[in-house]
Structures are given as structure tokens and as C-alpha cells.
Amino acid sequence: MKKSLLFTVLFSAVMVAQAPQGAQPPVLPGPPPQARPGKTAAPVDFTGYWVSPVMEDWRWRMVTPVKGDFASVPITAEAFKEGQNWDPAKDEAAGLQCKAYGAAAVMRVPGRLHITWQDDNTLKIETDAGTQTRLFHFNSKAPANEPASWQGYSEANWERPVRGEGDPRNDIPPIFSTRTGTRGKSLEVVTTHLRPGYLRKNGVPYSDNARVEEFYDYHKAPNGDEWFTVTTVVHDAKYLNVPFITSTDFKKQRDAAGWNPTPCSTR
Length: 267
What we know:
Number of strands: 11
Structural class: alpha+beta
Strand order of the largest sheet: 1-2-3-4-5-6-9-10-11
Strand content: 25-35%
Order of helices and strands: HHEHHHEEEEEEEEEE
Number of helices: 5
Mean pLDDT: 85
């Protein structure tokens, strides 16, 4: 018998013998449990129709900003130069009308979402603005040969609430580090394999090496209205001096009222 196995058997026997009458024997640390399907593990329900009330950034969200209006975006000199070359007619001619509807920007585009489960490990978000489809993959990694696309490849995970030190469940790493004070009502997403696009319709660029991190925080108002806030963090060493962070609110609707799929637009 190997020494490690012999030690485990003897340790268990001693602990059981010393345990008070009626007490449960201690559970020795073992391998972490297998990940449950994303749908089964969901702490909250994001499915349904949602609308984004525009309560801030009207000048950049409700209308197409003028060329050169890059205020509040921490762009590099290279990005500034690239943005000055923005030409919507040229994008239209090249079939690039969806450059402002990629994963790094689409949640800021005013409109509605339809969220459903495509399967037990894939949450699907459809946008009526630009008719885009985002797929959030649980328990899955991006394939090495994944082609670049507007929505890229999104790895998703339910954010875990803070646990005590030594909890063996901490051995199952989330995509990000758990944020202090959360209650496990957040969906966290990392998106890569993106086509180059715009952070705003007026040509503020992000590159094909951009990485998008998102936190979807669900909450319910005292009157029963359901909301979620998505905090989007865009990392792009080529075009951003520091990560670009936005937060966008969505309110749940009773039905599909107002749902109006429209194609991408450059203007």
C-alpha cells in the first residue's frame, strides 16, 4: 500500500474514532465536482424580452456623433488618426454596415433584446437593432481555429458568491476573480475572436485583438420591475490607452411589444 493512501486511511479512522457520539465524520478534500450545465446552474432567469431605456450618453447613443467626437473614450494617437478617416459611405460600399454592432459596442445601441436558451450550455441574445445574435457558451473554451466575427466567441460563467477560506469549491476557477459583495446573481462573459469594429458609429475603432469582458447584474425594483445592468470592459492595447468601461441598463418587458428587427446602419 502506498504511503499516501495508508496515511489517508489511518487519518480517517482516527478522526472517526475521536468524533463525538452522533457527529458526522469529516469529509476529506477531493476533486472538484464536475461543472453543471449553465442552464441548470443559473441563479437567476435572464430569459425574455428586454428594452434599454437611454438615460445617459444621448449625444453618442441616440444619434450618430459627428466625425472626430471621441470624447470620453481613452483612445491612442493611432486610434485618433484612424477615426479621422471614418467614411460611412465607404463602409456601406464594402458591406461593413455592422462595424458598430460588434460585441464591444452592440449593448450600447438603443433597442431591445430577446434572450433564450439555445441549449443547456448556450445562452442566446438576439438584438433587434442590427439583427445580431450573441451566443454565450458555458463550460466551453474558444476553439483555436475559431474564425473572427462581429460577435466573436463568448465564454460564460455564473459568478460565484464569496466563500470562506478553505472552501474546496474555490478550486473551480471562474473566468474572472469573484467581486467582493456579490450574491451570485451575475453572469460574467469574456469575448474574443472579434472582427475589427467601432465602439461608436462615428468610427472610434477597436482592433481584432480586442478582448471584451462583461458582467450582467440582475436586480428587482421594489415595485417588482426586473432589470439587469451590463458592465462592459473593452481591452485593446492598439487603440485604447486604458480599458474602456460602460454600463447599460435593461428593463424586462411583459411580451414582445416593440420588437422590431432592423438591419445594421452606418448613419
